[in-house]
Prior knowledge:
It is a single chain. By secondary structure, the protein is of the alpha/beta class. The chain has nine helices and eight strands. Strands 2-8-1-7-6-5-4-3 form an eight-stranded mixed sheet, sandwiched between helices. Helix 4 (117-128) packs across helix 5 (136-155). The longest helix is centred in the middle third of the chain and has 20 residues, at 136-155. The relative contact order is 0.23.
Amino acid sequence: RRADIVRMLLSPAVLAYPGPQREIMSDASRQPRSKDASNPALVIERFDAAHLDAIVECITELWISENVIARALGVEADEYRPGARQLCERALADGLGLMLREPDTDRVVGFLNVIDLVDELELLRARQAGALPADHMARWAALLWSGMQWYLDTYHRDRPLRRGETVYYDIGGTVAEHRSAGWINRMTMEMTLKVVMPRGYRRILFIATHPHSVHMTRTIPSIGQIHELRFADSPDPDLRRITDQDAADFTAAGRPRAPRSG
Length: 262
């Protein structure tokens, strides 16, 4: 059974159109590789309790230092870490997390965390209702909720969303030294083919925020249904400062760069 892909972009430009519904992974019959022939020391594995703290720290460090939204809002590690732990604990319990690990050092150098969309919406509603701390992440949640509302209006206007129907690919990344080997693509393939599709999910939802993933989503044909949100339309003044030039600078520099003040 195959799943449709839906992507949302967060960027300064407007793009909202229905693309053709693409069957997931045109080469789905190909088996994913869990090891890189050029770097056999790295392995893709499911989240486990023994590495949970390391996974949380890897996610926290990468998100606050390299995500354009985190940099624009000034999110600190201590502020983001509790939410990262909550997501990782749920992914561990649900079997929906992958880590990239160096067996020789036992170092976690990458991750992919996905979540059933019903659970993600529950977390967002709790933050919207003030049940979670009012911090910088609440400002990001407000923008994320507007995208989720588009999804619900588009696909579930006439019937409620059900658990096990849509999976949300929440967050993924690798440390800088392993970023050019395509590990995120491999983890995505492994998650999709070995976990998501066997569970019968009908739809996969991505939200692209990193400049590289935004560019890929804009330029790859037949990516599926695409909806783009504009940072310029955000009520948050710091999010409105994110520009395409900032994204270009970030991509070229390969390191965190403060948002422009203009």
